[in-house]
Amino acid sequence: MTILFLCREDNLVREIRGYARAFRRRGVRVACVEHGFPLNGSLAHLLERCPERPALVFHPESDYTLLPWGLSQVGIPTALLQADPYAYTHRRVRWAMLFDYVLLLHGGFEERFRKAGHPRPVTLPHAVDEGIFQGRPAERVLEVSSVGRGDGRNYRTRRKVLAELSDRFRTNQWWRRHSYEEMAQVYQASKIVVNVPRDDFPVDVSLRFAEAMAAGALFITRLPSELASLGFEENVHFAGFRERGELAGLVRRYLRDEAARKRIADAGQEKVLREHTYACRVDALLRRLEQDSGQLFAPARQWSEERARRVYLDYYAANGCLDCAYGELRQIARQSLRHAMAGASLIARAWVRQSRNWMAARVLRHS
N or C: lower Cβ tally within 10 Å for the chain? Predict the structure, then answer.
């Protein structure tokens, strides 16, 4: 079996790399896109370059914004991975209509996609590559750690809380970026990993819960949390706090009570390595494909070409691929002047965003 990933081999990082490795360990061939292939190229041309006809065309959420033309015509199941459905959900719903399956890494979004008309939203929660965390015992020299984003307006509380913890406990350099391997090393060297969710979605635990638990650290997160929907129990698999002022005392309590900390950390680790690995997610996806026997569900398969091109234009404009967006606009204008005007507005807004970002970056370079 072959699965075509709509990205290059060097785009296989984080979640995408986890899925690719898990597929390959199952004996599935993962084919990627060659360098130089145009972002708006033809899917038919990609399929011609595959060693065999793929069983699935898999579009990961990566920084390679390829969206080949022909997704709604190809007679092969297609899937779109949505790592962050919290952000710009309305646009993600729109793009998902081009695909037979939309794979959601956070729970609670399936109904949103169904109401919009997508028949196959599938929740595949965040997971870990178990091979990264096994067979590498480390001395837990860090009392508290956290790896993840700290920039931007949605992470103001995180920055404040982690700075406060750094003044009281031995922590990692939470303010800098870490590679996946560095993250695993930090968590394996940590007694406690703290999750301070993004300000706009306070129930979010992101990928951090699985990474921390797989590393054998005690995971502490704000409550309420999406962990409950994944079958994790407070004080059994993780610890929780409700008010920011409780956190330091909770950390201090579990640093003193090693037996309780280890009991909860061990239970969380066992559950993650049993139920929340990429191997588990890949098995679930392959079972779904087998059950559906090659059926094709994408709503866009019933659409006109012009309507599908509007979604392509929206995707390219949202991701800053303005040359590709202009190409779609020209095609749309041949069929509908009204829709072409709406598309031009999307491109104009994208151009303004790019200009602002460019100016902001220039100011930073010269400050």
Answer: C
- For 334-359, b/e burial (b = at least 16 CB within 10 A) is eebeebbeebbebbeebeeeeeeeee
* b/e 52-84 (16+ beta carbons within 10 angstroms → b): eebbbbbbbbbebbbbbbbbbebebbbbbbbbb
pLDDT in tens, 327-356: 999 999 988 878 888 888 888 888 887 766
Residues of the chain above pLDDT 70, percent: 95
- Would you call 134 exposed, middle or buried from its count of C-beta atoms within 10 A (0-12, 13-18, 19+)? exposed
Tokens of 113: 């996609």
**Owning domain of residue 238:** 130-276
Distance CA 184, CA 190 (A): 10
**Count of domains forming the chain:** 3
Instruction: Please answer whether residues 242 and 220 qualify as being in contact, where contact means their C-beta atoms are separated by less than 8 angstroms.
Output: no
Count of positions (residues) in the chain:
367
Integer CA distances (angstroms), 26 to 2, 60, 280, in order: 11, 19, 11
The verdict on 267 and 356 lying in the same domain is: no
Same domain, 144 and 162: yes
12-54 tens-digit pLDDT: 988 899 999 999 999 999 999 999 999 999 999 999 999 899 9
Alpha helices in 64-222 (DSSP H): 89-96, 110-115, 130-133, 156-168, 180-188, 208-214
Q: What count of other Cβ atoms lies within 10 Å of the Cβ of residue 257?
A: 12
Backbone angles phi, psi at 317, to 5 degrees: -65, -45
How many other CB atoms sit within 10 Å of the CB of residue 109?
19
**Domain check: are 136 and 77 in the same one?**
no
Nearest to 195 by CA among 171, 176, 174, 219: 219
User: Of all residues in the chain, what percent are helix, strand and coil, respectively (each to 5)?
Assistant: 50, 15, 35
What is the C-alpha to C-alpha distance for residues 123 and 117, in angstroms, rounded to an integer? 16
